[in-house]
């Protein structure tokens, strides 16, 4: 077998910082520009990855399926069913019969091989641009343990997505959210974490107290959230690995909520309510006093840092209704950026820095939308009885949010949508779900 | 204090344990049931004017608000005048004022809005002479509706501040 051009050893759980660094190739014909208008999904063929060892066929099939699901789930790719294949790929190292794949209009061909040796799982793949008759980028190899097979599949899909779109991937990521059961008047909530596609759900708290609006730290190792475990809303930090939690603010006679990390992972901002008035404060997550950032008699909440940490976007009803404002991270004069009809809340700065996602309430409907950081080019991506709480995929191209259905049997679910407004789809969760926060891409 | 009065207070205090269960979130307190016939006062029941049940049912434990508002209505002030008088008479009790919002709003904004509503009630009660250190506020935002339909009939009842009695037995 020819040596792969590039070998990445990714020990899952023990981090290799170079993983996932695959870059898109030059301007070949196989390219999806995500920013373009209407997109016809790009047809791809993904023959089940070859099993190179006797006990690999099961994992090879599962990995192939997850890679396909990741790509198809973007709405940018369409899988060609295996029943249409003319060629079979019997050996990962064999040359590709481009004519056979062209004949079924497969623009991209993804081949792979899976080997299990003891407690080591190795996954290799190659991406071919069928119509150019050439391999796109070099083959990649990932090594880990068999129980990390899903992450390895996501890394393969991230590399394919990244090469074809020129954007960063987002499949090897997690989502922390609030898992919900029970009717509206008896709702039980607990924090949960899962892979971006709904797999591997774990619960981080029990449902003895209301929990709200978790947010990942910039490295994904900790979660900030609000809990009523003392009977009053208080902000907490929870270590994802140990599931240990610690209250951050417990000043008597106050309520604290809406905590978010600064990009440095050390400082946080949050809302503190005193005497009926809610303002934004900052503090160090390690402890110490809180610094006031706003001082207005209006409601100031839902802060979100710019990726460079220099500014904070937040919502305030200082004008008489909920609107979006940006102020320096140290506080000070704020400028209003939302001016359309209706109310705007829950602003979240894109990880790319270019856009702000928000919830908009207008004429009895709720929308998830995006605007530029100066408020220009507002675009509404969704509309329903109740959509709220956007969170960005690590590549800034997809938004996940909460959708609650109407009436006595109303339920909360997670949905995702492209920033183009296309590809609206439910995210699978075991029970109801709300308040998602998307992690950065895992290392 | 007469021995019987002391017993009534004690029983009222015990009944409160049920009334202040945080799982109830301001649902109508009916501890003790109403009336025992013959006009006898059943301690802790709604016809015992020193009971939480009486406070909840006869005085009225809640006030309602207009959409996105936290200012008190005229009807609300009448209820709160009654609450203030009752609290000034029944000084063993403390209260937590819960602010709530309907579902037409984003989650964290509604927590802040509920805090405003609870504070409106607290400020009014204090202005009527109730000691501020007997009162606390908490906001549940839109997390604990009592009515679950998605129209104004339900929303109007969910935009509320509920005075939930606690304590007692301190004398």
3D architecture notes:
The complex is a heterodimer of chains A (443) and B (171). Helices cover 9% and strands 40% of the residues of chain A. Chain A has 443 residues and is mainly beta. Chain A is built from 3 helices and 31 strands. In chain A, strands 1, 2, 3, 4, 5, 6 and 7 form a 7-stranded mixed beta sheet that branches. Chain A has a 4-stranded antiparallel beta sheet with strand order 10-9-8-31, with no helix packed on it. Chain A has 2 domains: 42-165, TolB, N-terminal domain (Rossmann fold, 3-Layer(aba) Sandwich); 174-438, TolB, C-terminal domain (Neuraminidase, 6 Propeller), CATH 2.120.10. Chain B has one domain (3-167): 2-Layer Sandwich (60s Ribosomal Protein L30, Chain: A), CATH 3.30.1330.60. Chain B has 5 helices and 4 strands; from the N terminus they run ααβαβαβαβ. In chain B, α3 (74-89) packs across α4 (107-127). Residues 1-37 of chain B have low confidence and may be disordered. At the A-B interface, β15 of A face α4 and β3 of B.
Q: Which keywords apply here?
A:
heterodimer, A: 443 residues, mainly beta, Rossmann fold, Neuraminidase, 2 domains, 7-stranded mixed beta sheet, 4-stranded antiparallel beta sheet, 3 helices, disordered N terminus, B: 4-stranded mixed beta sheet, 5 helices, globular, Peptidoglycan-associated lipoprotein (chain B), cell outer membrane (chain B), signal (chain B)
